[in-house]
Write a structure and sequence with these properties.
heterodimer; A: about 290 residues; alpha+beta; 60s Ribosomal Protein L30, Chain: A; 2 domains; 5-stranded mixed sheet; 4-stranded mixed sheet; 8 helices; about 40% helix; globular; B: about 210 residues; alpha/beta; fumarase; 5-stranded mixed beta barrel; 6 helices; about 30% strand
């Protein structure tokens, strides 16, 4: 068997549809834990409504949010996978077919940045990032549709030989700027170092990490923990109307670079859209989330 | 837990003035909605030109909600609706609030202090919706009364509808100029240095 266009097309379409209706399990667990920690009626009720909305969307096959975002995919190609497919075209065909057939239909969110005209397609859309996975015999595809509510608060800055204090203060200030706006509690992804482009990629990838996962590097794990505490101390709370839970997790990764050090921060709103599956060389599909 | 207050629309100024920050309410009755920047611009253009709006917004509940609407041939239906970020309209809302004497506005993320001042002038409140609440909000729709400006994409259109127990919604700006958002921002400004100090201490403990 060989992985073909049709396999990629079908899976990329399914991943998008799932992402719109299903809040990941780790996220629901984190929201429930947050609800039990909150002390005000407003915060507890808001978190409870989030869980109810998530369950209703899943059970009734509805969208959690009306902003279905723009299509964003991460493709990880196993170097031992047997494939013969035009992956880019297949993903685009998958999204086009989704637009034609999905129920309920999507709103038009793909925007031409030069005219602000909205439609279902556009230049360089879907947005796809490719990577290789050594020795794997599968192609993994992650779909994380990106909407305006949390997408617009991502930020990056370049420093020269910054101290950790400078880096962490910047990350906190990005969280302060986003404030009540990004449908908290959010997941924060942080990239430190590398180059301009690589750093933002790291930050984005960190938003896709499982909530509660611990960074294997103890220095980074400690940074994640203290940043999580610091952001929650801001008090914006669920939906930004006050409370102890503004962030469900701060996930950090870093790359070596030159002495100019980019720091990038990206957010996923509470619904934390993220689906992931693998197509193996023998054709079977494994849905991971 | 404090009770969730059930409010019938149209809301009286007296009712609006009785609401306190953090109260949760549900709304039953007529509301208007749009999620479009071009829609807000067109409303301002109509105000400037003294043109008659396609629907009356006076003293109404006007929300930043995006919706998917379609004509079934047997009337218009809304398949789903959900809030959008209100602060995007900060610069346009004070005039709209004052011109129509809006009793309730809402969406997610709040409005700024200029909008809070406008709401105080007319005796109106800002209500925070759950973002990602499409399944909950959509089921409150009883009837679509009117969809105007259909030349715009679906979520930008101006929609008048009748809802039953929409919410719960959180009172985030009251009719007296008080704002949860302003309060939180002020609190963060006051405590930022202290939070950074705690970060530094936590880092030092590890080192």
């Amino acid at each position: 068997m060989t992985i073909k266009d049709a396999d990629i097309q079908k899976l990329s379409e399914d991943l998008y549809s799932w992402a719109l209706r299903k809040v990941p399990e780790d996220t629901k667990v984190a929201l429930a834990a947050a609800r039990d920690r909150e002390t005000t009626d407003t915060a507890r009720r808001t978190l409870n409504m989030m869980l109810t909305s998530a369950n209703r969307a899943e059970n009734d096959n509805q969208f959690v949010c009306s902003d279905s975002g723009v299509p964003v995919y991460f493709v990880k190609i196993g170097t031992k996978a047997d494939w013969n497919a035009n992956i880019k075209s297949a993903i685009r065909a998958g999204f086009d077919h989704l637009v034609e057939t999905i129920q309920p239909p999507l709103l038009k969110h793909v925007t031409n940045p030069l005219t602000n005209e909205r439609s279902y397609s556009g230049r360089h859309m879907p947005i796809i990032t490719y990577d290789l996975v050594e020795d794997a015999d599968y192609i993994e595809i992650i779909c994380s549709p990106k909407a305006l509510g949390s997408g617009r608060w991502a930020a990056m800055e370049l420093f020269t030989f910054p101290t950790l204090e400078t880096i962490e203060t910047y990350i906190l200030d990005v969280a302060i700027k986003a404030g009540a706006q990004h449908c908290p509690p959010v997941v924060m992804g942080v990239g430190i170092g590398g180059t301009f482009d690589y750093c933002t990629k790291l930050a984005k990838e960190q938003t896709l990490r499982e909530i509660g996962s611990i960074n294997p590097d103890p220095q980074v794990a400690a940074m994640e923990e203290r940043l999580c505490e610091a952001v929650n101390a801001l008090g914006y709370g669920p939906m930004g109307t006050g409370g102890a839970t503004t962030v469900l997790g701060v996930h950090v990764d870093y790359a070596a670079g030159h002495g100019f050090t980019p720091v990038a921060v990206a957010f996923n709103c509470w619904i934390n859209r993220r689906t992931r599956a693998r197509i193996y060389s023998d054709g079977h599909v494994e849905r991971l989330e | 837990m404090s009770a969730i207050r059930k409010i019938e629309l149209p809301m009286s100024r007296q009712t609006a003035e009785s609401l306190e920050l953090g109260d949760m309410v549900t709304l039953t009755g007529p509301v208007k909605m749009t999620a479009g920047m071009p829609t807000h611009q067109r409303i301002l253009d109509f105000i400037d030109a003294g043109k008659k709006m396609p629907m009356d917004l006076s003293q109404s509940a006007f929300f930043h909600l995006g919706s998917y609407s379609r004509d079934t041939g047997n009337g218009i239906e809304i398949l789903y609706m959900n809030p959008t970020t209100s602060t995007r309209f900060n610069h346009m809302m004070p005039r709209i609030i004052r011109h129509f004497g809006l009793r309730c506005v809402g969406g997610k993320g709040g409005l700024d202090s200029a909008c809070a001042a406008a709401l105080k002038d007319v005796g109106g409140v800002y209500l925070s919706f759950l973002g990602g609440g499409a399944p909950l909000h959509s089921e409150s729709i009883r009837r679509i009364e009117q969809v105007a400006w259909t030349d715009l994409v679906s979520h930008y259109r101006l929609v008048a509808m009748d809802v039953a127990e929409l919410g719960p919604l959180t009172v985030a700006i009251d009719a007296h100029g008080q704002s949860l958002y302003d309060n939180l921002d002020a609190s963060v400004r006051q405590r930022r240095e202290q939070i950074i100090e705690q970060l530094n201490l936590a880092r030092a403990r590890r080192d």
